[in-house]
Amino acid sequence: MVSRMNRNNDKISSFQLGLILAVNMVGVGILTLPRTITEAVGPDGWIVLCITILIVFCLTLFMTKLTRKFPQETVVEFSTTLIGKPLGLIISIGFCIYFIIISAAEVRVFGEIAKEYLLFNTPIEVLIITLLATAAYLVRSGIEPIARMAQIVFPIVTCIAIVLILPVLPEIDMTNLLPFFHTPILKILKAIPITFFSFIGIEVLMVFSAFVVDLRNITKHAFMSVGMVGAIYMFIIIVTVARFGIIESTHIIWPSIELFKTVDLPGAFIENIQVFVIAMWIFSVFMTLVVLYFGASLILSRVLKSREQNYFVLPILPIIYYISLIPDNIAQVNDYIDLLSNYLGSFYVIILPLLLLGVSIFRKKKGGKKGA
């Protein structure tokens, strides 16, 4: 039944899934991560990030072990199988709502950034609805075009960002990262959630794995995505703190953007590099929105036993739009994102995969004993 619900062209490789995970994790969080982690632990942010990456690797391993047990099934199907239909459906609907709210937060931050740096006189409502309409078009195309888009966007955006940041490197002062290991261990442990929630997005693995044709390689490529995103975060944190210093890094609202503001390319045909960087970041946010948007519509279609995920794309659009306009300002948006990450994020990234994997292992052992 599940396999018939997947269209013939809706198949992706585990490598493509890895890139989808990567573009989904690198979204809004990269803009504020250097500031928030520096506020918490000063120059030892890289230590916290190293610990976090190891934790995310472990959680990713648990998720891939779980999804490999249920090929061609999303979290909707295998959660109802493992913990019963009523509870499984509640969790699945919650997953859908979670994706919708995160999507709303992403487009609101996009609107605020675009209005502040690019389109000063354009109403934020117009910016948001334009991004949503464009995303809806790609979401309706299916998972394969989304995967192909991720294959294009992630390498290009990453390479361009690295090239543009190279002129900053001669200006950095590595002594700004000293002293090492100065932060008490308890304070470092308390700061782990700050970096951990920058990896929010890895949980879509439990939805998109249903389309993967080579599940045997899913762990390798999921690890690849976590490693790449972790390396990007590490690079941004170290360069930002080394360039601006501890005090200034904690007072800049968008330190990752301001970092590129200091770039000066003599003879370059682009005068304002910062605008170009924001344009590249918008591609990243667009892909994050597309992945979450597709995930929400797919889960809803599976919950309602619909053969077509496309039917739910347009009805979800106004919901995302109106939720995105609820916060009064960007500070409220960040507060809502923190609240969402702390509760729903923790549940769907940590508790749910561990719970479902534990139940599946217990059932297998119980079945083995009965067979004996």
Automatic annotation (TrEMBL):
- Which InterPro entries does the annotation name? Spore_GerAB (IPR004761)
| Source species, domain of life | Bacteria
What is the protein's major site of localization? membrane
- Asked whether the UniProt record includes Chloroplast among its keywords, one would answer no
Topology of this chain in the membrane: Multi-pass membrane protein
Where is it localised?
A: Membrane
> Alphabetically, which GO biological process terms does the record hold?
spore germination
Q: Pfam families, from UniProt? A: Spore_permease
* Keyword annotations of the record: Germination, Membrane, Transmembrane, Transmembrane helix, Transport
Would you name any one GO CC term? membrane
The keyword Membrane is assigned to this record: yes
Q: Where are the transmembrane segments?
A: 12-33, 45-66, 87-105, 117-139, 151-169, 189-213, 225-246, 273-300, 312-331, 343-362
Family, per the entry? Belongs to the amino acid-polyamine-organocation (APC) superfamily. Spore germination protein (SGP) (TC 2.A.3.9) family.
Q: What is this protein's record name?
A: GerAB/ArcD/ProY family transporter
Lineage per the UniProt record: Bacteria, Bacillati, Bacillota, Clostridia, Eubacteriales
